[in-house]
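Quick start: read one record
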Amino acid sequence: MAFLEFKDSYRTGHNSVDHEHEELIGLINDLHSALGNSGEKEKVEEILGEMHGQISSHFALEEKVMRDQHYEDYAAHSRDHNRLLDEILDIMDRVHNDGSYEYMERLEKEVADWFEIHFREMDGKFHGKITNTKVTAQGEVGY
């Protein structure tokens, strides 16, 4: 069983956003496995780096969709994205500087809570409010 399961409550109604949410949960589960298998600091740092990259890309997609659809809470949501990106960088720094066993044990819960809270408090607000558009590699939106 996975550490964190994708729930219907995580769905926003936008296929691309929802797919990326599932991928991010997969990375959280990879982190859980890495911590459980060996807790090797280098592997954990690698997964966190991949998470940061995917989260940055995912937030850019969400913000493009919100701007294109004139989502009323865009500014607050974008600020939360910036806060979360800063937090993931702080987590990465703590792992790099303090890769102690005690911290590694708390890490997966911290990351999962971080993800769950953003879904519940921010993404949940635009659940079903955005239409199912496609964003091409060139950043164009098609319906």
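The mean pLDDT is 79.
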